[in-house]
Amino acid sequence: MRAFAPTQHIASPLSAEALNDQPDTTRRLLKRLLDIAETSDYLVGGSVGEFAVGEEIFQIPRFIFMGPTGGGDTVRLGIFGGFHGDEPESAEALIAFLEELDESPQLANGYHIYVYPLCNPSGFVARTRGNASAEDLTKQFWNGSSQSEIYYLEREMGVLRLHGVFSVQTQSDSGGFLVNTKSRVLNRALAHPAIQASRRFLPGNVEKSEALPGDIRPTKPRDLPDFLSATDELNPVPFELHIGIPKSAPKPSQIHGTIGALKSILDSYRSLLAISQNL
Questions:
Q1: Number of structural domains, the chain?
Q2: What is the DSSP string of 193-224?
Q3: Can you give the pTM of this predicted structure?
Q4: Beta strand 43-53 with 56-66: parallel, antiparallel or unpaired?
Q5: 61/13 Cα distance (integer angstroms)
Q6: How far apart are CA 204 and CA 172, in angstroms?
Q7: Is residue 13 one of the residues assigned to a domain?
Q8: Nearest-angstrom CA–CA distance, 150 and 153
Q9: pLDDT of the chain, 279 residues: tens digit per residue
């Protein structure tokens, strides 16, 4: 069941100038990327909607990176971060990822990438795990939620007909990066190379503790459950993939490791599609 629409919902544009109406922490997070979008040939910044919490107005930012044409059908991916306000690493990593794509657009050949770096703007401002209603947004999808954030994000997935959706979250109980999907094929084709790519940015003592999906180890980081596509209301149903950022890693490692994993996934999925088309 889809989320209920907010009493008042507006799909208003989000620009560097419009950030003046957003809290200081949000403005600092997004301003540089919105400035880039103003002149970029590939990056478009905006908002999927806004909602009120008391007298404060919050927006759900969305950035679309339209990569160069790849020669085949364009692949549409959605990447969602910033679900928990006390874990800003995912939002910061996704913004840095988009900045790198704008500098090297060929990394996104054949892709349209929809990035939602701040799914929980009220929690981000308050530095709380839940949103202003104290709800964990990862547990609210497709169950008739009354949360405005869920309404907008579910609507996006329904309209865009994405081929794949990714969640990026911080994992406090993992020594290294976690990348997983329920598909055995995609775990081998995407998750394994992504973990290897992310490992390069971790300190050596942390790097050795990470297990690949399917590895037999005494201890294995817990999987992140599917929640973005866990419904029969999406057609087609996108594949779902999760990236867990190690909380214990230094901030540069968290950001660059996430970027490395995402770049690896783009490259690996492009290769997988090329192989399947030649079969």
A1: 1
A2: HHHHHHHTTS-HHHHTTPPPTT---SS-PPPP
A3: 0.91
A4: antiparallel
A5: 9
A6: 18
A7: no
A8: 5
A9: 788 787 655 556 677 777 777 889 999 999 999 999 999 999 999 999 889 998 888 999 999 999 999 778 899 999 999 999 999 999 999 999 999 999 999 999 999 999 999 999 999 999 999 999 999 999 999 999 999 999 999 999 999 999 999 999 998 766 799 999 999 999 999 999 999 999 999 986 444 444 555 443 333 455 688 999 999 999 999 999 999 999 999 999 999 999 999 999 999 999 999 887 764
CA angle 107, 111, 115 (to 5 degrees): 90
- In a domain? residue 4: no
| Domain extent at residue 49 | 18-278
CATH number reported for the structural domain that contains residue 111 in this entry: 3.40.630.10
Asked whether residue 10 is domain-assigned, the answer is no
**Residue 2 within any structural domain of the chain:** no
Structure tokens at 185: 């094929």
| CA distance linking residue 188 with residue 186, whole number of Å | 5
- One-letter amino acid at 242 equals H
The structure tokens listed for 246 are: 């190690």
CA angle 268, 274, 276 (to 5 degrees): 105
- Alpha-carbon gap, residue 10 to 152, rounded angstroms: 10
